[in-house]
Amino acid sequence: MKSRHNGNLPHRGIALWWGLFLFRRLSVGLGYGIIVVRGAGALDDQEKQEQQTQEEKLKNWWHPPFYQGLIAVLDPTEEYLSFQDEHRLSKEALRIDVIVSANNGTIPKKHDVAKIFKKYNLFEYKAHNDSLTIEDYTASIGKGHLYSAFEKVALSDITITFAVNKYPRNVINYLKNVRNFEVTDNENGLSSVCGDVFPVQILICKKDDNIILRNLHDNLTPAEVYETIHAFEQLRPGEKNVYVERIILSNWNAYKEASRMYPTLKERFLEIEEEGWLEERDLERAKDMLLDGESPEKVSKWLRLSLDKVKALV
């Protein structure tokens, strides 16, 4: 059988060799130009990475107050329910935003979201600057299976709630038209999903009757700032809490106006600062970030903590 290569193969090989040789020589001779081009590309990549990091920080900014708000709404004394924030499913960064579990089998129905509750209730939260995607939905169902496997929990004892601020139209259409699930819109911003492995519901927080979950965003009026903090502290008074801090910091101009209208607001924030728990909270967050593989330098920059304090946590 004749070879498919013709007689010019050796010459092509020599030409290729010379081409590579000349390219290497030119690369050395024009090294500065090559370095500049690569440097610009690396800078673009770095800027994109920093932008993505900033976007992730903004999305995660509202997760801690959502956790605290959920406690206030469901069981402010934590007598009947236990709450776990960012529960790790493994040593890697695979987490469930919130797990609400019944302490002694008794589940208070203080909020409509608790009507479907079973023993273990998993929450996926999306802040007002984030959206629920089909991939998020699928991942959360997968986390439910992993939680069942890792924690030796029956699938029948698990429910999943998606707490979002933007109506997830694409997800709803996918569930109805692709998965053939029944999705029912109920009162108080709740939609129930029937047909999946777990009982599933979607809570649109901005439609919620309860001001504590509805007002988790950065566009509150002065009156809303006061009403929101007052409603929260009526349920969980005098507690060192990230909920109040995030509402104030994210609505700073409205807070300053509200503090002139309602002097008790200013007093409360001064108490929070004096108690020093803001740094305590950031140190706990720093520990989690270090466990996730972030460098001490990045943690120090993101959380505005001294590098020495962050390195002491390693």
Outline the secondary-structure elements.
Layout: H1 9-29, H2 31-60, H3 63-74, E1 81-88, E2 95-102, E3 120-125, H4 134-151, E4 158-164, H5 169-177, E5 182-185, E6 190-194, E7 200-204, H6 211-214, H7 222-235, H8 242-250, H9 252-261, H10 263-275, H11 277-291, H12 296-303, H13 307-311
Parallel strand pairs: 3-4, 4-7
Antiparallel strand pairs: 1-2, 2-3, 5-6, 6-7
Helix pairs in contact: 3-8, 7-8, 7-9, 9-10, 11-12
Could you characterize what this model shows?
There is one protein chain. A hairpin with a 5-residue loop joins strand 6 (190-194) and strand 7 (200-204). The chain has helices at 9-29, 31-60, 63-74, 134-151, 169-177, 211-214, 222-235, 242-250, 252-261, 263-275, 277-291, 296-303, 307-311; strands spanning 81-88, 95-102, 120-125, 158-164, 182-185, 190-194, 200-204. It is an alpha/beta fold and 314 residues long. It contains 13 helices and seven strands. Among the domains are: 58-216, 3-Layer(aba) Sandwich (Trna Endonuclease, Chain: A, domain 1), CATH 3.40.1350; 278-311, no CATH class. The chain has a seven-stranded mixed β-sheet with strand order 1-2-3-4-7-6-5, sandwiched between helices.
> Which descriptor suits the 3D outline?
globular
Task: Count every beta strand, where a strand is a DSSP E run of 2 or more residues.
Answer: 7
How many individual helices?
13
Head-to-tail CA distance between termini: 67 Å
CATH topology of one domain: Trna Endonuclease, Chain: A, domain 1
**How can the largest sheet be summarized?**
7 strands, mixed
Work out the helicity level. 40-55%
Question: Which runs of at least 5 residues are low in confidence (pLDDT < 50)?
Answer: 1-40
CATH class of one domain equals Alpha Beta
Overall pLDDT, averaged? 80
| Lateral strand order in the biggest sheet | 1-2-3-4-7-6-5
Strand/helix succession = HHHEEEHEHEEEHHHHHHHH
